[in-house]
Fold each of these.
Amino acid sequence: MFSIVILGTGNVATHMFQAFQASSECSVIQVYNHQPDSLQVFEKSTATTTNLSELKQADLYLLCLKDDVIEKLANQIQTNSGIIAHTSGSQSILESANSGVFYPLQTFSKGSKLDYSKIPICLEANSEENLKILRAIGKCISTEIFEINSAQRQTLHLSAVFVCNFTNHLYSIGESICKEDNMPFDILKALIQETSKKIESNSPSDVQTGPAIRKDQSTIKRHLGQLQNKIHKDIYQLLTQSIIQKHD
Amino acid sequence: MFSIVILGTGNVATHMFQAFQASSECSVIQVYNHQPDSLQVFEKSTATTTNLSELKQADLYLLCLKDDVIEKLANQIQTNSGIIAHTSGSQSILESANSGVFYPLQTFSKGSKLDYSKIPICLEANSEENLKILRAIGKCISTEIFEINSAQRQTLHLSAVFVCNFTNHLYSIGESICKEDNMPFDILKALIQETSKKIESNSPSDVQTGPAIRKDQSTIKRHLGQLQNKIHKDIYQLLTQSIIQKHD
């Protein structure tokens, strides 16, 4: 049984907590946060604390924290042999005696249900032994375990911004264009699902469709005329130019 | 039984052909294209022609053609009472005696298998009677039938460019960033699927994540430093700015 202390109470912390608690081989023995209010939801299921000096001894201290506070908090953890690991896609591995990275490559929102067993977990550790422990802990929740160094992880994190964060923003632009014209956004959802499904078995550049790749200037011109919002117009122009440039 | 002549042999034509042929209430009695080679795949299943003056009498002439040739071809169709409809998201309804629009709101690629029954079909017709016929034909292949006028259809088509064509291009940028660093794109696919799944039951603007919405300037700065490709850098900057502007 692996004992885990989770530091943080945001979306990643909440989902990691749920994933570990569902595993018979892991136990989250404590959750830390400096604000007592945010600990309330965890109190029924495990011990909680707002005091870093009261952290229990554990196999893993999982820092599900904002990038800019990870190092500061990590330096205050007193542990004999526990691994101190963060879940950040962009921060380097910490310089503590036993350190690691436990980066779940997924988008976590409150309330969304996830199949944790399919979430890629990207691991890094400062020793072979610690990597072995992190791998064993990772396998408790997911079948998709990858060993990835910090540079590679930063590449993945950057790609993830394009395929997840920016993609979601395009969905939101699509929604606002529909709303302006009193059209239900729901009508686009089959298209959105198929667009993501298509790249499961195809390279996205092989299945590009739309006016840009057809160099259909009359449609492009009409679309630009329809767009009221200045920044939406700029995005339309830049992405169209990028598609044309890529496929030329 | 509705008799249908399909004009065109591209992705939309091919998928519409398959959808209608799977229905017991529709029959594609002929496929037209000016190039004989592209008709070969249809020859085993139905009549074909390269000559517009040889078109059979049908209930529906479905023009699955590039926008700029729709009108020209439509004017050459000689029919007694058949409806002449196109499948374009952006073209207005034709001015023939019996005219309509039969716009399947989906992305069609060769080789991809689709559940046609879930594809939204956006209909428009020049009379109540013709609308009734198009609705009956639409229901042969899909449960998602919408009556949409030309202005609304153009709005949907514009939104579709953002949520489908531009989204797919972001996937392709993610893939090229991974490739440059010898990382498998596959590792991002669970994230891509979850990003599209999340908006099934949430407004995309409510589930925006990532460095832009957190105004995490140090990550944004590092990402811009990582990007080698000039246009990818411009896209990163513009979409980041747009997310910050929207959520401010």
Amino acid sequence: MTNIVVVGLGEMGASLAKILTAQSDNYVVGVDMSEQSLRYALENHLVSATNSRLRDVASQADVIILATPVTSIEKSMQQLATMSLKKSVIITDTGSTKRDIMAVAEQVLTPMNMKFIGGHAMAGTHQSGVTFANENLYRHMTYFLVPSSISESSQLQTVLQPLAAKFMTIDVARHDALMATISDVPHIVAFSLMNAATTQLGPSTMFGQYVAGGFKDTTRIAASEPKLWADVLLSNKEAVLASQTQLRKQLDLFAQAIENNDDDALIALISSARESRENL
Amino acid sequence: MTNIVVVGLGEMGASLAKILTAQSDNYVVGVDMSEQSLRYALENHLVSATNSRLRDVASQADVIILATPVTSIEKSMQQLATMSLKKSVIITDTGSTKRDIMAVAEQVLTPMNMKFIGGHAMAGTHQSGVTFANENLYRHMTYFLVPSSISESSQLQTVLQPLAAKFMTIDVARHDALMATISDVPHIVAFSLMNAATTQLGPSTMFGQYVAGGFKDTTRIAASEPKLWADVLLSNKEAVLASQTQLRKQLDLFAQAIENNDDDALIALISSARESRENL
């Protein structure tokens, strides 16, 4: 019997819990601040048991999965470092940026000989909360694993196998640069496009009737959760700023080509973008 | 019997022709440089007749619809100004930017007492060519009409009624500013995101496996046709550059807030974008 503690029953954590609970050799304890979420999780068999306090259940755990926002993950890690846990316990998280989390792990967990492996699945929707638990959320999705200095990821992969995700080990710098470019800056761009449009055209209720599918696609992720994304952007600060500088350079190339009526330069820029997009 | 000449049997023109030909009181003549397109249009009943030269059929026309790329539209207008047309003829176009086209109309058509009404439907897909003629292409779509100094759009609307589009009269400056903000700059952004990603991460075949739906949505329109979009961006130059400056300001607000670790500012920026997107 593997005792698994999942902290945070949002969409990511609740989906993890649901999938792992469905395995007969797992005993999954859900931890959340919301009594309502805990009740929902128990009633819908997303977990085997619930508890509102990590410290009440951590000592029994073989695997602890921290599935809260990044700042709460770091607090939980600091708490765990003060508890007496199983020697073999594996601690992991689901935070979408890894630099700060890995730094905290090396600072507080590694000295206690606690094994930590950072985790980040390229999964999740715009929906949030325990009611969006979905047993297919991770299927065929890339699931990054970021080893710390005393971690070893094959055991964790065995436990997480029922997710049917594509596990991939990656180092922290590469992970965060990748996220900045393929996720964080695209979000900033979508937010900025919406804000620029309302600045120029007034409320979106006024111009919404005119927009075609292109604008809707390009701004779809502008509807993301503000607190969560403020956290993500700040926790990946250096990589985000570096990646945004690269984007600005590309935008400047377009402005320059348009300014100069340079048809050839524009066609070259667009052709390169088109080819990359088609090969994605 | 209304004699309608459609110049340019691409997706937009061929769809228009197909819809209008289906009305028994219309006689639709398709004009295109490609013999193959003309043959296809005739064989598939998209038109009543075809001709490879506008000058052979223009004098009979009650309505002339110029559905070629912007630069060709302008050339056709200059040709029409030298021909003897019906006194009552209405000339319109389907170009996605209107400033240059309206300027040419005032310069060459108005002095000849020829009625011109600019047209632009918020319809069309990434597909191109006569084989994509679609009788539902315009259904429920906004179709902008831009009056020139001697035009009157109710007659044209009567002819175009079978499209089932939502017709909306708009002035040229407002039209082009709107397009810059909701279409042109979003395209530039999508192109730039792709180019910035490949600059930082290498070919998209290398990082494509990691990207989630957000990146795919945001860059979908980066797969657009290079020559066409170079034309669009250059023909709407002033409005595009002005709108891109507004976007850059919004991007800078994000960079600044991240630089300053300003959680509150970030949440405010994202909340405003989210609300606008949800009300779209």
